[in-house]
Design brief:
The complex is a heterodimer. Chain A is of the alpha/beta class. Chain A has helices spanning about 45-50, 75-80, 95-100, 120-130, 145-160, 175-190, 205-210, 225-230, 235-240, and strands at about 5-15, 20-30, 35-40, 60-65, 70, 80-85, 165-170, 195-200, 210-215, 220-225, 240-250, 250-260. In chain A, the strands form three sheets. Chain A has a six-stranded mixed sheet with strand order 6-7-8-3-9-10, sandwiched between helices. In chain A, strand 1 and strand 2 (about 20-30) form a beta hairpin. In chain B, helix 6 packs parallel to helix 12, helix 6 runs antiparallel to helix 15 and helix 7 (about 130-140) packs parallel to helix 10 (about 175-200). Chain B has one domain (about 30-335): ABC transporter involved in vitamin B12 uptake, BtuC, CATH 1.10.3470. Chain B is globular. Classes of the chains: A alpha/beta, B mainly alpha.
């Protein structure tokens, strides 16, 4: 990878209530790359994502956004560069889809003005086209199906023209078609030069769509590299305590979680 | 006139072909031909006109009804006259206070529902209302009210702020809306029990009656002094709350997402807490507790602003002002032996409306 990383994390430690959640994490997010964060529940994936947007500030270590320390950048300026899709997928009020997507332009707008500039409108339109929700734009967001709503929220995140897109379990609760559709959209966005970091539980999707995978275990990086090297039997056994079938499909390695490991956790 | 031109310009047909139809176009057709921003402006204009109309009617209605022309002539006449005095001493402060208090309740209700992301939140959720009632009642009981006529509102304002400070301390530095609600409920009920305690200890039935009547809320006998006391606090409160309209829009997608959009939730929280205390505390302190306005008005207007929690704020303020001014008119024109109280009317008008809304929502959900 020749280009400079969008986000650089060095030696990140994060402790909450005497529990070390992140332990000396080093991470680089490059433009045009889909980076998958995987690991068991509670391994610190979401926390890592939240520390990138300053939602859970790290206790030590440095985070650089395009080479500038994150804590030196005003919140609004960093919000222009990083978009975050949280685990929360609900939309509280019955807004129209177009208005939800327009929320993504907020970091670019003034505090008092509600007016959308032509640039805002163009970006909203482009974001809706990118995820193919133009036909939904006048619908009420609370009445959409899960898959449609997830795409609306993705359009919201893209409308701000971010350099880095963080998504926390974007595929959870979706059917296979919509999971694949969403991941294909991520890939397409990555090809346009956005850096993408997704927390993902579906190992099959991770192996298929990610350029690089980081496997976390108890707040530490267990393995970091392309899917074919990270997703091997030893790593899956240590990281998840599972055995998986590693299949070869048209030259791509596909991971199918198969059964729990026999060994007890306290023997580790 | 410019509005009409605007409406016509949005029409897909040529003006000639629809000339006869144009005049009779039903409201809904006009609404659907307008763009969304124009629709919002139209709503705001309509609400403002109704607000002004209800203010004017409120000024004209009273023990003797004044005709608009009479009042106009009295006001522009150079020499002092009776009507002029009645207007400035009685009618104007009462009507204007009604508008301001209604605006405060409406806007704070909308902010609370937006921030708590809870359709049941109302201006009293942070305990300010309960605290203001408690403060005024205590001032009443201690006899300050007979010595100094503004003791009640001042006591109410102080009470509201004391309870608010307790809520802030109790909910901690990293309070979430949930902890704020819980702390608010705890101190509201504490303030409520202090109010009951004062009633319990009241020396005679008359004093108890006075307190109960005050608690029911009224705009009767309010003068310019009450306005001077409450308005300088309410206006900064309104501005603080209006400042929160953008973060409230972002909060539609949850607190984390709003944070990631560059809004510091800590800052937003302090803005909302301070703003609502400044807006509602003096309002309740001056009028007594008035329920339901802050709860139903946001629900009533939310569909008309397309669910947008930011645009809802000014609309909801105006709506609250209209409801309160109209309720105050009802209070004065309905003939009863004893005076009808404002808080009673707002609840009586509000509850059926709310039920209607519920039935509508239920039908849509089916």
């Amino acid at each position: 990878m020749t280009s400079n990383p969008v986000i650089t994390m060095r030696n990140i430690c994060l402790t909450r209530r005497n529990r070390q959640i992140l332990n000396h994490i080093d991470l680089d997010g490059f433009p045009g790359q889909v980076l998958g964060l995987i690991g068991a529940n509670g391994s610190g994936k979401s926390t890592l994502l939240k520390s990138m947007i300053g939602l859970l500030p790290a206790n030590s270590g440095t985070i650089l956004l395009e080479g500038i320390p994150l804590n030196k950048i005003p919140a609004r300026d960093s919000a222009k560069k990083i978009s975050y899709m949280g685990q929360e997928n609900e939309c509280q009020w019955p807004l129209q889809v177009r208005d939800v997507v327009a929320l993504g332009r907020m970091p670019h707008q003034g505090t008092w003005s509600q007016k959308r500039s032509t640039e805002d409108e163009a970006n909203i339109e482009a974001a809706m086209q990118a995820v193919d929700i133009c036909h939904l734009q006048n619908r009420t967001v609370t009445r959409l199906s899960g898959g449609e709503r997830r795409r609306v929220l993705l359009a919201r995140a893209l409308a701000g023209k971010p350099k880095l897109l963080l998504a926390d379990e974007p595929t959870s609760g979706l059917d296979p078609y919509h999971q694949l559709q969403l991941m294909e959209l991520f890939r397409k966005q990555a090809e346009k030069g956005i850096g993408i970091i997704v927390v993902i539980h579906e190992l099959t999707l991770a192996s298929r769509f990610c350029d690089r995978i980081i496997l976390l275990k108890s707040g530490k990086i267990l393995s970091d590299g392309p899917p074919s090297t990270v997703l091997n039997q030893t790593n899956l056994a240590t990281g998840y305590n599972i055995q998986a079938a590693l299949l070869d499909y048209n030259g791509d390695t596909t991971v199918v979680p198969w059964c729990c490991c026999q060994k007890k956790e306290n023997h580790e | 006139m410019s509005l009409l031109k605007l409406i016509i310009s949005k029409m897909p047909l040529t003006i000639d072909s629809i000339m006869p139809v144009k005049v009779f176009l039903p409201c809904s057709v006009i609404m659907s031909t307008l763009r969304k921003t124009d629709r919002y402006h139209l709503l705001m204009v309509t609400l403002s006109i109704f607000c002004l109309l209800s203010f004017i009617s409120s000024v004209l209605v009273g023990t003797t009804t004044i005709s608009p022309w009479e009042l106009w002539h009295a006001l522009i006449s150079p020499e002092d006259n009776m009507l002029q005095m009645v207007f400035w001493e009685i009618r104007f402060p009462r009507a204007f206070l009604g508008i301001c208090v209604g605006f405060s309740l409406g806007i704070t209700g909308a902010v609370m529902q937006g921030y708590m992301r809870n359709p049941l939140a109302d201006p009293g959720v942070l305990g300010v209302t309960g605290g203001a009632s408690m403060g005024a009642v205590v001032a009443f009981y201690l006899g300050f009210a007979t010595i100094y006529s503004y003791a009640l509102p001042i006591g109410g304002i102080l009470g509201g702020f004391i309870v608010l400070c307790l809520v802030i301390v109790a909910s901690g530095r990293n309070a979430t809306p949930q902890t704020l609600i819980l702390a608010g409920i705890a101190f509201s009920s504490l303030a409520g029990s202090v109010t009951s305690l004062v009633l319990n200890f009241s020396p005679n039935p008359h004093a108890a009656m006075d307190i109960v009547f005050w608690l029911l809320g009224s705009l009767k006998d309010r003068n310019m002094g009450h306005l001077y006391l409450s308005l300088p606090l309410m206006i900064p409160g309104w501005l603080l709350l209006l400042y929160c309209s953008r973060p409230l829009q972002a909060l539609t997608l949850g607190e984390e997402t709003a944070n990631s959009m560059g809004f510091s939730m800590k800052k937003v929280r302090s803005c909302i807490i301070t703003g609502s205390a400044l807006a509602v505390g003096p309002a309740i302190a001056v009028t007594g507790s008035i329920g339901f306005v802050g709860l139903i008005i946001p629900h009533l207007l939310r569909p008309l602003v397309g669910g947008d929690p930011g645009k809802l704020l000014p609309a909801s303020g105006l709506g609250g002002a209209i409801l309160l001014a109209c309720s105050d008119i009802i209070v004065r024109i309905v003939p009863f032996h004893s005076e009808l109280k404002l808080g009673v009317v707002t609840s009586l008008v509000g509850a059926p409306f709310f039920l209607y809304l519920l039935l509508k929502v239920r039908k849509e959900a089916l």
